[in-house]
Amino acid sequence: MSTGDFIFTGLGHAYLKDNWIFRNYRGEAVRGQVLALLGPNGSGKTTLLKILLGALTPSEGSVNIQGQVAFVPQLFQVAFDYTALDMVLMGRAKKVGLFSQPTPADEEAAINALERMGIGHMAYRPFHEMSGGQRQLVIFARALVAEADILILDEPTSALDLKNQNGILEWIDRLARRENLTVIFSTHHPHHAYAVADQALLMLGENDFESGPVGDVLTEKNLLQLYGLPLKRLTFDYEDLNVETLVPVFRNCKRRKAN
Amino acid sequence: MTEAAGKEKRKKSGRWREWSARSQSLLRFIRDFNSRNSLAMPLFLTGAMFAAIIGSICIGPYPMSIFRAGHIVFNLSLPWPLPGDLPWPLKELTVIQVIRLPRVLLATVAGIGLGLSGTALQGMMRNPLVGPDLVGVSSGAAMGGVLAIMMDWSPATVVCLAFIGGLAAMGGTFWLAGAAGKSDGIGLVVSGIFVGAFCLSCVGLGVFLANDGQLHNIVFWLLGTMIHATPETVWLVGIPTLVGGAVLMLLRWRLNLLSLGNVDAFALGVQTKGLRLGVITIVSLIIAAQVSVTGIIGWVGLVIPHLGRMLVGPDHRKLLPASACLGGLFVLLIDDFTRVILRSDVPTGVLTALIGTPFICYLFWKKQTKGWSSD
Amino acid sequence: MTEKTVKQEKFSACSSGRFRRWLPKTPLARPWILGLILLIAIIGSLFMGAYPIPWHRILEILLNSVWPFSGSESAYLDLREITVVTLIRPPRILVAVLAGIALGMSGTALQGMMRNPLVGPDLVGVTSGAAFGAVLAMWLGFLYTPVILVLSTIGGIAAMLGTMALARVVGGRNDSLPLILAGFFIGAFFLAGVGLLIYLENPFYPKGQRTGNIIYWLLGTFRGAGPVKAWTIAVPTIVGGTVLMGLRWRLNLLSLGDLDASSLGINLNRLRWILITVVSLMVAGQVAVSGVVGWVGLIIPHAARMLVGPDHRRLIPASAMLGGLFVLGLDNFTRTVIWSEVPVGVLSAIFGTPLICFLFWKTKTKGWNE
User: Fold this and answer.
1) Residues A63 and A2 in one domain
2) Taking the CB of the first residue and of the last residue of chain B, which one, N or C, has fewer CB atoms within 10 A?
3) B52, B331 in Cβ contact below 8 A?
4) CB spacing of A80 vs B309 below 8 angstroms
């Protein structure tokens, strides 16, 4: 295994004894790939992410992660009114000694990372006053500064409007392809996974999961089992693009096109 | 509501909006100023504190010129003994050496300790509402201190017991908040109030059991006062404050990291548990030393960090030194006020509470910092 | 609005669970039985005290004092013993019981009104405000207890209004953190005022003498209770208690929340004002007579809720009885067991805070934060 790869096998966790959230989960990705975690609310997505991050020791199974991991939480609330630069600078925590302060070189690296994310002009803007999408970018920059190999995102698109969802997805794509990071993210939208991910892990139940390349895993049958409602896989042409996506069918809602 | 009343109300709210806009623009101006000259504000605060120390030595019932005072202090601070024939009256030397210098230094050092520990606690718990009073450290230290006073033990033992009491109270608060399932926000505040109240009731028991001679001492000491200033007590407070403060200063960027929260800080590679424990120990030590000499001086540790944040922003690399200076300045000025203007020994703790509580109510109202309402 | 709906409200968190299981509807869970126990405790307390009198003598004196015909036995009774049993002990016991009743009832009313099991007279600042008023009265030289009562009532109402106003401008009445913090801040402010007054000794009194008295009084004690003090606490407690008993079903409705209650057609503001005034009056009465006896008003409602459930129709009388029992028990404890008049306020805090911590832990802040 090289840096940026990871694999976990036989993974299981129970907060209370014998009350398993999931068991025997297996998944893997290599450097530069994107892995999407899909599962209904309460299926343990955040728990799994915490285990991958190393913040939680799993009850059973093994995780093998090569390289530095960075984390982008779902809701980012900071008690104090730090500037964007302060936030990014915190990514250097491992490189700055316990009793020392970050040097101007660290600061330069932070500004550099902000510029790479295209928000260099906002370096001194208070983090509180930024929009949700901009905050995500700041946290991405922090991951860059930490020189992470693997980026873990907890529902990065859940609180955003469509335009910002698109922005974040583009950034995930770019971080994986251009910066050559491995990205793991959880999401409630199968079409987001379909758009950017290479690998997918469907958390179907305590002992039940599907894992593998997106095309194999995100089938109509699996998704029906996962969400309990049918999703249709569509292929169509938009301008010069051949688009493949998933559309949910809300079968019992009234407003349908008259035949 | 009648038409006129509605109009009046609108007018009032308009005026209020104007006010709040003005204060907002002031804050923004300070922020811009800081981003342009990043060293100006810290230098100004440090200078102000030293100027206040020198100034405070000159004033008092027996006023003195700044040159004379400076000369005496300079000579006193030299490591070798004073020359045999003094170039100034003995009375002035006594006033400065025995009375004023210890008192001024004690007030400053106590204030520095309070400002530092309040800022560290707020950063560490990522809660702008905690302070040494609210998490029970002060009350715990007072409990230990009263116990030692009742036994007529030596000042060093008082510090020791106060330290143990403060640490125990803080540990109790954390444990209770953790056991109740909420280690920040409301759980912490409520546990702090409970634990503090318990410690204070033990202090009450001590007050009840004390004999008349001890009673007066204990009560005035509890209210927070600088009258016990002697060179020894200055060292007693000064050494823990300076040593602990130095360590906190070195850790000041780590406080930024701690303020992110457990999971996030862990992901960045910070050993949160050990760091937290270290900060707690240092804060308890500083507060214990301060309480064991000057009694409970409340609200400084809660208010000063907010002032500091207004002046230099939330980055602990600048905030920590700034609140140290501000704390020293604040307590020193209050002590000067009682010493020179009131010409009596109104307890400092009473004054800080009378000034601090309205101020914190105002801040609470303005919600300068988000995250004040339950997490 | 039935009892059932009310029970499903947030208070169920504290009363349900393990306690409810081993405290099923025993006969204890009836207010009048608690009242009976209180009565027995009151009579029993007459038999306790520092001055040793054999119990049959006490019985004799008591019977003699209620016996309508003048008996010949009184001739051989010791005058000192008669004084102790009929003049010294009853006022003190009465004051203790009434203080407990006032605290228990006002705590329950506050918790119901603010829909928050964490508030109590101490935590919303009423006690501190009342203490400030009372100390101010003493400092000004009014030592006659009814005058102290007036000033301490004013102080209590001022503190409570301050707390509620501050909590309201900050974050609405429904969030508990602003309320608790506001209470803490306001309370601290008034306590600083008390500290200032203690420091600024009244020039009319010999130095040092008043300080000691005020400090001792502040710690909460029933020492030196006489008929005047008994009357001073009895009038506000009985008046306020009657009002609260009358409003006890309304409290059920208030604890549903503003929206529900106003949709049921209740004049919320008027009700709230009445409750604020009554609670402040009762707490002020207790403080004026016996100083700060903390934590009773916070704990008793919880204990009562465990016994009789969250319905205020039973909860209000039950917490009155429990409060009386608790404070009387504490006073008897210091009077007879410790033999040294440790202030009741100190005892109630030493016992009370661990208890409330335990409750806090047990309920895991469920329903404490809404």
Assistant:
1) yes
2) N
3) no
4) yes
